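Input (structure):
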């Protein structure tokens, strides 16, 4: 029997490579050592409260000359620690579905309300599983998108995006209710 020619071997390798790339381009989900990749969509409301006797976000550090003013409740350079409530609907009395803990830094100068957020979103309906957002949040933009950069539990190795819409914002004290529509790819 004759040995296969180098040309035949190269053609076979190219065909296998093209087939693999075509499967990836069509969105065919591959098995990973963690199992099959899944897509999960979530919709919830985050309640961020800076005012009152029981705030869910508190100032932990601030930059020089950082003073709250009407219309700019989180001045440039301010750092907040958060433990925000997540609910099914926009009303605070809605069913609680989880919490969001982390930090955000006010990164908008000259009164532009913009934050850089690093937050872990944990869900009781998923046995405490969570995903992590680390992204810029231009608060005054009606519909904005944040990056999902990781996850744990049922959302292990999550990546994706969160589309946000401000449901309520008090520019005097910074209290806000934000609608999140999240798409996660995870194992």
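Output (sequence):
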């Amino acid at each position: 029997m004759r040995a296969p020619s180098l040309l035949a071997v190269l053609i076979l390798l190219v065909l296998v490579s093209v087939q693999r790339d075509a499967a990836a381009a069509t969105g065919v989900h591959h098995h990973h050592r963690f199992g099959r990749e899944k897509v999960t969509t979530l919709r919830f409301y985050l309640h961020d409260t800076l005012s009152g006797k029981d705030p869910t976000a508190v100032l932990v550090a601030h930059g020089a000359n950082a003073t709250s003013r009407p219309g700019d409740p989180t001045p440039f350079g301010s750092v907040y620690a958060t433990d925000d409530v997540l609910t099914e609907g926009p009303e605070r009395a809605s069913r609680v579905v989880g919490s969001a803990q982390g930090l955000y830094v006010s990164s908008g100068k000259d009164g532009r309300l913009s934050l850089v957020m690093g937050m872990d979103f944990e869900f009781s309906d998923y046995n405490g599983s969570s995903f992590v957002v680390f992204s810029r949040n231009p608060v005054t933009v009606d519909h904005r998108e944040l990056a999902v950069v990781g996850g744990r539990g049922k959302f292990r190795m999550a990546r994706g995006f969160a589309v946000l819409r401000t449901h309520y914002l008090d520019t005097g004290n910074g209290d806000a209710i934000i609608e999140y529509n999240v798409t996660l790819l995870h194992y």
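Notes: The CA atoms of residues 30 and 53 lie 50 Å apart. The helical segments are 6-25.
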